[in-house]
Amino acid sequence: MDSCGSLAGSLLDLASAIYAAGTSLVCGSVAPETVQLGPRRYQVARQLGEGGFSQVLLVEEVDSGAQYALKKIICHQGTDALAMAQREIDAGMRFAHPNIVPLVDHGIVDGGPSLRGTQIAYMVFPVYRRGSMFDLVMDSEDGGRRLDEQFVIRVFRGVCAAVRYLHSYSDGGSRGRSEGGRRSDADASLKSVDLAGSEDDGRQGAQFLGPSKQHWQPTSPGRAGGYAELPQAEERDAAATLSPERARTGGYAHRDIKLGNVMLADDGKTPILMDFGSVRPARATARTRAEALQMQDDAAENCTMPYRAPELFDVQRDAEIDERTDVWSLGCLLFAMAFGYTPFEGPGMGPGTSIALAAINAKYTFPASSPHSDRIKQLVDFMLVPDPRQRPFVDQVIALTDQLYPH
Protein backbone atom coordinates (compact mmCIF):
# COMPACT_ATOMS: atom_id res chain seq x y z
CA MET A 1 0.00 0.00 0.00
CA ASP A 2 1.31 3.48 -0.79
CA SER A 3 1.79 6.19 1.83
CA CYS A 4 -1.57 7.72 0.95
CA GLY A 5 -3.33 4.47 1.81
CA SER A 6 -1.42 4.30 5.08
CA LEU A 7 -2.48 7.84 5.86
CA ALA A 8 -6.12 7.05 5.14
CA GLY A 9 -6.02 4.06 7.43
CA SER A 10 -4.36 5.96 10.23
CA LEU A 11 -6.89 8.77 10.00
CA LEU A 12 -9.69 6.21 10.21
CA ASP A 13 -8.17 4.71 13.33
CA LEU A 14 -8.13 8.19 14.89
CA ALA A 15 -11.74 9.00 14.07
CA SER A 16 -13.00 8.96 17.63
CA ALA A 17 -9.83 10.39 19.12
CA ILE A 18 -10.11 13.53 16.99
CA TYR A 19 -12.99 14.85 19.00
CA ALA A 20 -13.47 12.85 22.18
CA ALA A 21 -10.88 14.44 24.44
CA GLY A 22 -12.60 13.07 27.52
CA THR A 23 -13.34 9.49 26.38
CA SER A 24 -11.26 6.50 25.33
CA LEU A 25 -8.21 8.55 24.38
CA VAL A 26 -4.59 7.61 24.16
CA CYS A 27 -3.20 10.71 25.83
CA GLY A 28 0.36 11.81 26.24
CA SER A 29 2.37 14.95 26.69
CA VAL A 30 4.11 16.75 23.83
CA ALA A 31 6.74 19.42 23.80
CA PRO A 32 5.30 22.94 24.20
CA GLU A 33 4.22 24.09 20.79
CA THR A 34 2.12 26.84 19.27
CA VAL A 35 0.44 26.83 15.88
CA GLN A 36 -0.32 30.08 14.08
CA LEU A 37 -3.23 29.98 11.63
CA GLY A 38 -3.90 33.47 10.32
CA PRO A 39 -4.69 35.76 13.24
CA ARG A 40 -5.32 32.88 15.64
CA ARG A 41 -2.67 31.19 17.73
CA TYR A 42 -3.17 27.80 19.35
CA GLN A 43 -1.21 26.38 22.27
CA VAL A 44 -0.82 22.61 22.26
CA ALA A 45 -2.03 21.11 25.54
CA ARG A 46 -1.43 17.44 24.85
CA GLN A 47 -1.51 14.77 22.20
CA LEU A 48 -4.73 12.85 21.77
CA GLY A 49 -3.54 10.33 19.21
CA GLU A 50 -1.21 9.71 16.32
CA GLY A 51 -0.67 7.36 13.43
CA GLY A 52 1.22 7.37 10.18
CA PHE A 53 1.78 10.97 9.13
CA SER A 54 -0.91 12.52 11.29
CA GLN A 55 -1.45 13.71 14.82
CA VAL A 56 -4.50 14.83 16.74
CA LEU A 57 -3.78 17.42 19.41
CA LEU A 58 -5.82 19.05 22.13
CA VAL A 59 -5.15 22.77 21.79
CA GLU A 60 -6.22 26.02 23.43
CA GLU A 61 -6.73 29.22 21.51
CA VAL A 62 -4.37 31.67 23.18
CA ASP A 63 -6.70 34.67 23.17
CA SER A 64 -9.92 32.97 24.29
CA GLY A 65 -8.68 29.90 26.14
CA ALA A 66 -11.22 27.78 24.24
CA GLN A 67 -10.23 24.16 23.64
CA TYR A 68 -10.29 22.49 20.25
CA ALA A 69 -9.10 19.35 18.50
CA LEU A 70 -6.34 20.07 15.99
CA LYS A 71 -5.74 17.56 13.21
CA LYS A 72 -2.18 17.86 11.86
CA ILE A 73 -1.30 16.03 8.65
CA ILE A 74 2.22 15.93 7.22
CA CYS A 75 1.86 15.84 3.44
CA HIS A 76 4.92 14.44 1.71
CA GLN A 77 5.64 15.04 -1.96
CA GLY A 78 4.61 12.23 -4.27
CA THR A 79 1.59 11.20 -2.21
CA ASP A 80 -2.10 12.10 -2.29
CA ALA A 81 -2.04 13.30 1.30
CA LEU A 82 -2.29 16.99 0.41
CA ALA A 83 -5.20 16.40 -1.99
CA MET A 84 -7.02 14.38 0.66
CA ALA A 85 -6.48 17.05 3.29
CA GLN A 86 -7.58 19.80 0.90
CA ARG A 87 -10.74 17.87 0.07
CA GLU A 88 -11.64 17.63 3.75
CA ILE A 89 -10.90 21.32 4.29
CA ASP A 90 -13.01 22.31 1.30
CA ALA A 91 -15.88 20.15 2.52
CA GLY A 92 -15.70 21.92 5.87
CA MET A 93 -15.78 25.27 4.12
CA ARG A 94 -18.77 24.31 2.02
CA PHE A 95 -21.13 22.47 4.32
CA ALA A 96 -23.03 24.06 7.21
CA HIS A 97 -25.66 22.03 9.04
CA PRO A 98 -26.52 21.43 12.72
CA ASN A 99 -25.64 17.75 12.36
CA ILE A 100 -22.35 18.23 10.46
CA VAL A 101 -19.08 18.94 12.26
CA PRO A 102 -18.01 22.57 11.77
CA LEU A 103 -14.51 23.40 10.60
CA VAL A 104 -13.41 26.10 13.02
CA ASP A 105 -10.11 27.01 11.40
CA HIS A 106 -7.61 25.59 8.95
CA GLY A 107 -4.34 26.23 7.21
CA ILE A 108 -1.67 24.64 5.01
CA VAL A 109 1.93 25.67 5.65
CA ASP A 110 5.40 24.66 4.48
CA GLY A 111 7.11 21.98 6.51
CA GLY A 112 10.12 24.16 7.24
CA PRO A 113 13.80 23.19 7.42
CA SER A 114 13.15 20.00 9.36
CA LEU A 115 10.58 18.74 6.83
CA ARG A 116 11.90 19.95 3.51
CA GLY A 117 9.69 19.23 0.53
CA THR A 118 6.60 18.72 2.68
CA GLN A 119 3.54 20.70 3.61
CA ILE A 120 1.54 20.49 6.82
CA ALA A 121 -2.24 20.68 6.80
CA TYR A 122 -4.03 21.84 9.96
CA MET A 123 -7.75 21.49 10.70
CA VAL A 124 -9.36 22.79 13.87
CA PHE A 125 -12.58 21.18 15.10
CA PRO A 126 -14.68 21.31 18.25
CA VAL A 127 -13.93 18.84 21.02
CA TYR A 128 -16.87 16.50 21.63
CA ARG A 129 -16.24 15.15 25.09
CA ARG A 130 -19.04 12.59 24.96
CA GLY A 131 -17.20 10.76 22.19
CA SER A 132 -18.67 8.85 19.27
CA MET A 133 -21.55 6.46 18.84
CA PHE A 134 -18.91 3.74 18.57
CA ASP A 135 -17.79 4.58 22.12
CA LEU A 136 -21.38 4.61 23.37
CA VAL A 137 -22.32 1.30 21.74
CA MET A 138 -19.16 -0.33 23.08
CA ASP A 139 -19.90 0.95 26.59
CA SER A 140 -23.42 -0.44 26.32
CA GLU A 141 -22.09 -3.78 25.15
CA ASP A 142 -19.68 -3.92 28.06
CA GLY A 143 -22.63 -3.32 30.39
CA GLY A 144 -24.71 -6.03 28.70
CA ARG A 145 -27.46 -3.63 27.65
CA ARG A 146 -28.91 -2.03 24.52
CA LEU A 147 -29.33 1.64 23.76
CA ASP A 148 -32.82 3.02 24.25
CA GLU A 149 -34.88 2.75 21.07
CA GLN A 150 -36.11 6.34 21.13
CA PHE A 151 -32.54 7.57 21.59
CA VAL A 152 -31.37 5.42 18.67
CA ILE A 153 -34.08 6.84 16.43
CA ARG A 154 -33.31 10.40 17.51
CA VAL A 155 -29.65 9.94 16.56
CA PHE A 156 -30.63 8.20 13.34
CA ARG A 157 -32.98 11.04 12.35
CA GLY A 158 -30.21 13.60 12.93
CA VAL A 159 -27.71 11.68 10.78
CA CYS A 160 -30.36 11.31 8.06
CA ALA A 161 -30.91 15.08 8.14
CA ALA A 162 -27.19 15.65 7.58
CA VAL A 163 -27.14 13.11 4.75
CA ARG A 164 -30.18 14.68 3.08
CA TYR A 165 -28.40 18.03 3.23
CA LEU A 166 -25.35 16.56 1.49
CA HIS A 167 -27.38 14.73 -1.15
CA SER A 168 -29.39 17.82 -2.05
CA TYR A 169 -26.50 20.30 -1.83
CA SER A 170 -26.27 22.64 -4.79
CA ASP A 171 -22.91 24.19 -5.63
CA GLY A 172 -24.70 27.14 -7.16
CA GLY A 173 -26.63 27.80 -3.95
CA SER A 174 -25.75 29.94 -0.98
CA ARG A 175 -25.54 27.25 1.69
CA GLY A 176 -21.76 26.93 1.73
CA ARG A 177 -19.52 28.29 4.44
CA SER A 178 -16.73 29.57 2.22
CA GLU A 179 -16.26 33.21 1.48
CA GLY A 180 -15.58 35.19 -1.64
CA GLY A 181 -13.40 33.59 -4.26
CA ARG A 182 -12.77 30.46 -2.18
CA ARG A 183 -16.08 28.95 -3.28
CA SER A 184 -14.91 28.00 -6.76
CA ASP A 185 -11.71 26.48 -5.37
CA ALA A 186 -13.69 24.38 -2.93
CA ASP A 187 -16.05 23.27 -5.69
CA ALA A 188 -13.15 22.22 -7.89
CA SER A 189 -11.50 20.22 -5.13
CA LEU A 190 -14.67 18.42 -4.12
CA LYS A 191 -15.57 17.60 -7.72
CA SER A 192 -12.12 16.31 -8.69
CA VAL A 193 -12.22 12.76 -7.41
CA ASP A 194 -8.70 11.38 -7.11
CA LEU A 195 -9.12 7.68 -7.68
CA ALA A 196 -5.57 6.58 -6.95
CA GLY A 197 -5.22 2.82 -7.05
CA SER A 198 -5.12 1.11 -3.65
CA GLU A 199 -5.99 -2.10 -1.90
CA ASP A 200 -8.39 -2.60 0.96
CA ASP A 201 -6.21 -1.69 3.93
CA GLY A 202 -7.99 -3.91 6.42
CA ARG A 203 -9.75 -1.04 8.13
CA GLN A 204 -12.94 -3.04 8.36
CA GLY A 205 -11.64 -4.62 11.54
CA ALA A 206 -11.62 -1.29 13.34
CA GLN A 207 -15.41 -1.18 13.39
CA PHE A 208 -16.14 -4.71 14.61
CA LEU A 209 -18.29 -4.45 17.70
CA GLY A 210 -18.32 -8.08 18.68
CA PRO A 211 -21.29 -10.23 19.68
CA SER A 212 -23.50 -9.33 22.57
CA LYS A 213 -23.36 -11.10 25.87
CA GLN A 214 -26.91 -12.28 25.16
CA HIS A 215 -27.63 -15.57 23.40
CA TRP A 216 -28.58 -15.03 19.76
CA GLN A 217 -30.54 -17.27 17.45
CA PRO A 218 -30.54 -16.61 13.69
CA THR A 219 -33.78 -15.49 12.14
CA SER A 220 -34.72 -15.48 8.50
CA PRO A 221 -32.92 -12.69 6.62
CA GLY A 222 -34.51 -9.72 4.98
CA ARG A 223 -38.21 -9.08 5.03
CA ALA A 224 -39.03 -12.63 6.03
CA GLY A 225 -37.67 -11.78 9.46
CA GLY A 226 -40.71 -12.89 11.40
CA TYR A 227 -42.11 -9.47 12.29
CA ALA A 228 -45.16 -7.47 11.36
CA GLU A 229 -44.39 -5.47 8.24
CA LEU A 230 -45.74 -2.07 7.39
CA PRO A 231 -48.58 -2.63 4.88
CA GLN A 232 -47.35 -2.27 1.32
CA ALA A 233 -49.75 0.54 0.52
CA GLU A 234 -48.42 2.59 3.44
CA GLU A 235 -44.85 1.88 2.39
CA ARG A 236 -45.62 3.10 -1.11
CA ASP A 237 -47.13 6.24 0.40
CA ALA A 238 -43.92 6.84 2.35
CA ALA A 239 -41.87 6.39 -0.81
CA ALA A 240 -44.13 8.71 -2.76
CA THR A 241 -43.09 11.66 -0.61
CA LEU A 242 -39.74 11.78 -2.41
CA SER A 243 -39.25 15.09 -4.17
CA PRO A 244 -38.68 14.43 -7.91
CA GLU A 245 -36.19 17.30 -8.00
CA ARG A 246 -34.18 15.84 -5.16
CA ALA A 247 -34.31 12.36 -6.68
CA ARG A 248 -32.65 13.71 -9.82
CA THR A 249 -30.10 16.08 -8.25
CA GLY A 250 -26.97 14.31 -7.07
CA GLY A 251 -25.22 16.63 -4.63
CA TYR A 252 -22.53 14.88 -2.60
CA ALA A 253 -22.21 11.52 -0.87
CA HIS A 254 -20.33 11.02 2.39
CA ARG A 255 -19.30 7.45 1.53
CA ASP A 256 -18.07 6.53 5.02
CA ILE A 257 -21.04 6.75 7.39
CA LYS A 258 -20.39 4.55 10.43
CA LEU A 259 -20.53 4.51 14.23
CA GLY A 260 -17.05 6.02 14.57
CA ASN A 261 -17.94 8.97 12.36
CA VAL A 262 -20.99 10.01 14.36
CA MET A 263 -20.12 12.11 17.41
CA LEU A 264 -22.44 13.21 20.19
CA ALA A 265 -22.72 16.90 21.01
CA ASP A 266 -22.36 18.00 24.61
CA ASP A 267 -26.14 17.79 25.10
CA GLY A 268 -25.77 14.01 24.76
CA LYS A 269 -28.47 13.65 22.13
CA THR A 270 -27.49 15.60 19.01
CA PRO A 271 -25.50 13.54 16.47
CA ILE A 272 -22.66 15.19 14.56
CA LEU A 273 -21.49 13.61 11.30
CA MET A 274 -17.74 13.97 10.79
CA ASP A 275 -14.74 12.98 8.66
CA PHE A 276 -15.35 14.39 5.19
CA GLY A 277 -12.14 13.18 3.59
CA SER A 278 -14.26 10.49 1.94
CA VAL A 279 -16.83 12.88 0.42
CA ARG A 280 -17.39 12.54 -3.32
CA PRO A 281 -19.82 13.86 -5.92
CA ALA A 282 -22.81 11.57 -5.44
CA ARG A 283 -23.33 10.58 -9.08
CA ALA A 284 -20.67 8.85 -11.16
CA THR A 285 -20.64 6.49 -14.16
CA ALA A 286 -17.85 4.04 -14.94
CA ARG A 287 -17.58 4.48 -18.70
CA THR A 288 -14.59 2.16 -19.07
CA ARG A 289 -13.26 -0.87 -17.24
CA ALA A 290 -10.36 1.25 -15.98
CA GLU A 291 -12.76 3.78 -14.48
CA ALA A 292 -14.71 0.96 -12.86
CA LEU A 293 -11.57 -0.39 -11.22
CA GLN A 294 -10.63 3.11 -10.06
CA MET A 295 -14.04 3.52 -8.42
CA GLN A 296 -13.70 0.15 -6.77
CA ASP A 297 -10.22 0.94 -5.46
CA ASP A 298 -11.36 4.34 -4.20
CA ALA A 299 -14.19 2.67 -2.29
CA ALA A 300 -11.77 0.10 -0.83
CA GLU A 301 -9.60 2.91 0.47
CA ASN A 302 -12.27 5.31 1.72
CA CYS A 303 -15.42 3.30 2.54
CA THR A 304 -15.21 1.11 5.65
CA MET A 305 -16.04 -2.45 4.60
CA PRO A 306 -18.90 -3.43 6.98
CA TYR A 307 -20.79 -0.28 5.90
CA ARG A 308 -19.90 -0.38 2.19
CA ALA A 309 -22.71 -0.66 -0.35
CA PRO A 310 -22.72 -3.84 -2.49
CA GLU A 311 -22.27 -1.96 -5.77
CA LEU A 312 -18.91 -0.63 -4.54
CA PHE A 313 -17.38 -4.08 -4.00
CA ASP A 314 -17.44 -5.09 -7.66
CA VAL A 315 -17.87 -2.08 -9.94
CA GLN A 316 -18.62 -3.04 -13.52
CA ARG A 317 -18.17 -1.05 -16.70
CA ASP A 318 -21.14 1.29 -17.32
CA ALA A 319 -22.13 1.02 -13.65
CA GLU A 320 -23.92 4.08 -12.31
CA ILE A 321 -23.14 4.94 -8.70
CA ASP A 322 -25.33 7.43 -6.85
CA GLU A 323 -26.05 8.84 -3.40
CA ARG A 324 -27.89 5.70 -2.31
CA THR A 325 -24.54 4.21 -1.31
CA ASP A 326 -25.06 6.34 1.83
CA VAL A 327 -28.53 4.88 2.37
CA TRP A 328 -27.03 1.40 2.57
CA SER A 329 -24.53 2.70 5.15
CA LEU A 330 -27.40 4.27 7.09
CA GLY A 331 -29.04 0.85 7.27
CA CYS A 332 -25.84 -0.65 8.67
CA LEU A 333 -25.52 2.25 11.11
CA LEU A 334 -29.06 1.80 12.45
CA PHE A 335 -28.54 -1.94 12.82
CA ALA A 336 -25.28 -1.40 14.75
CA MET A 337 -26.80 1.22 17.07
CA ALA A 338 -29.75 -1.07 17.84
CA PHE A 339 -28.06 -4.46 18.12
CA GLY A 340 -24.42 -3.77 18.96
CA TYR A 341 -22.73 -5.08 15.82
CA THR A 342 -22.92 -4.43 12.09
CA PRO A 343 -25.30 -6.65 10.08
CA PHE A 344 -22.59 -8.45 8.12
CA GLU A 345 -20.34 -9.21 11.11
CA GLY A 346 -22.93 -10.64 13.45
CA PRO A 347 -22.79 -13.87 15.47
CA GLY A 348 -24.95 -15.63 12.89
CA MET A 349 -22.44 -15.09 10.07
CA GLY A 350 -20.09 -17.92 10.98
CA PRO A 351 -16.27 -18.05 10.79
CA GLY A 352 -14.67 -17.12 7.50
CA THR A 353 -17.77 -15.44 6.14
CA SER A 354 -16.98 -12.86 3.48
CA ILE A 355 -18.39 -9.45 4.34
CA ALA A 356 -18.43 -8.56 0.66
CA LEU A 357 -20.43 -11.64 -0.35
CA ALA A 358 -22.79 -11.24 2.58
CA ALA A 359 -23.45 -7.63 1.60
CA ILE A 360 -23.87 -8.39 -2.10
CA ASN A 361 -26.47 -11.03 -1.21
CA ALA A 362 -27.99 -9.00 1.66
CA LYS A 363 -27.35 -11.97 3.94
CA TYR A 364 -27.98 -10.78 7.48
CA THR A 365 -30.12 -11.84 10.42
CA PHE A 366 -31.75 -10.06 13.32
CA PRO A 367 -31.25 -11.26 16.90
CA ALA A 368 -34.00 -13.53 18.12
CA SER A 369 -34.29 -11.54 21.34
CA SER A 370 -34.16 -7.77 21.50
CA PRO A 371 -35.69 -5.00 23.63
CA HIS A 372 -36.49 -3.05 20.48
CA SER A 373 -39.72 -3.06 18.51
CA ASP A 374 -40.06 -4.54 15.03
CA ARG A 375 -40.11 -1.02 13.61
CA ILE A 376 -36.31 -0.93 13.65
CA LYS A 377 -36.20 -4.15 11.63
CA GLN A 378 -38.65 -2.61 9.18
CA LEU A 379 -36.39 0.41 8.69
CA VAL A 380 -33.23 -1.69 8.31
CA ASP A 381 -34.86 -3.90 5.67
CA PHE A 382 -36.12 -0.82 3.86
CA MET A 383 -32.53 0.43 3.44
CA LEU A 384 -30.51 -2.77 2.99
CA VAL A 385 -31.65 -3.47 -0.56
CA PRO A 386 -28.70 -4.86 -2.56
CA ASP A 387 -29.95 -3.57 -5.93
CA PRO A 388 -29.18 0.18 -5.82
CA ARG A 389 -31.90 0.86 -8.38
CA GLN A 390 -34.48 -0.49 -5.92
CA ARG A 391 -32.94 1.07 -2.82
CA PRO A 392 -34.76 4.13 -1.43
CA PHE A 393 -33.42 7.67 -1.36
CA VAL A 394 -32.79 9.30 1.99
CA ASP A 395 -36.02 11.33 1.69
CA GLN A 396 -37.95 8.07 1.60
CA VAL A 397 -36.05 6.78 4.61
CA ILE A 398 -36.92 9.92 6.58
CA ALA A 399 -40.56 9.66 5.53
CA LEU A 400 -40.82 6.05 6.68
CA THR A 401 -39.01 6.85 9.93
CA ASP A 402 -41.49 9.64 10.67
CA GLN A 403 -44.38 7.31 9.83
CA LEU A 404 -43.12 4.55 12.14
CA TYR A 405 -42.03 6.95 14.89
CA PRO A 406 -44.36 9.97 14.85
CA HIS A 407 -42.93 13.04 16.58
State the gist of this model.
By secondary structure, this protein is α+β, with helices and mostly antiparallel strands. Helix content is 34%, strand content 15%.
CATH fold topology of the largest domain = Transferase(Phosphotransferase), domain 1
Task: Let me know the largest β-sheet.
Answer: 6 strands, antiparallel
Contiguous runs where pLDDT drops below 50 for at least 5 residues? 1-13, 18-30, 173-184, 192-248
Instruction: Let me know the CATH homologous superfamily of the largest domain.
Output: Transferase(Phosphotransferase) domain 1
The overall number of domains is 2
Mean pLDDT: 78
Strand percent estimate: 15-25%
**H/E element string?**
HHEEEEHEEHHHHHEEEEEHEHHHH
Strand neighbour order, sheet with most strands: 1-2-3-4-6-5
Q: Give the beta-strand count.
A: 12
> For the CA atoms, what is the radius of gyration?
21 Å
Named CATH architecture of the largest domain: Orthogonal Bundle
EC number: 2.7.11.1
GO molecular function: ATP binding; protein serine/threonine kinase activity
Region (Disordered): 196-227
Enzyme class: transferase
Description:
The protein is α+β, with helices and mostly antiparallel strands and 407 residues long. It has 2 domains: 3-125, Phosphorylase Kinase, domain 1; 133-404, Orthogonal Bundle (Transferase(Phosphotransferase), domain 1), CATH 1.10.510. The chain is 34% helix and 15% strand. It has helices at 3-13, 15-19, 81-94, 133-142, 149-167, 182-191, 232-239, 244-248, 289-302, 324-339, 355-360, 374-383, 394-404; strands at residues 34-37, 40-51, 54-61, 67-76, 105-110, 118-125, 252-253, 262-264, 271-273, 280-281, 284-285, 320-321. α10 (324-339) runs antiparallel to α12 (374-383). The longest helix is centred in the middle third of the chain and has 19 residues, at 149-167. ATP binds at residue 71. Its EC number is 2.7.11.1. Keywords: ATP-binding, Kinase, Nucleotide-binding, Serine/threonine-protein kinase, Transferase. It catalyses: L-seryl-[protein] + ATP = O-phospho-L-seryl-[protein] + ADP + H(+); L-threonyl-[protein] + ATP = O-phospho-L-threonyl-[protein] + ADP + H(+). Belongs to the protein kinase superfamily.
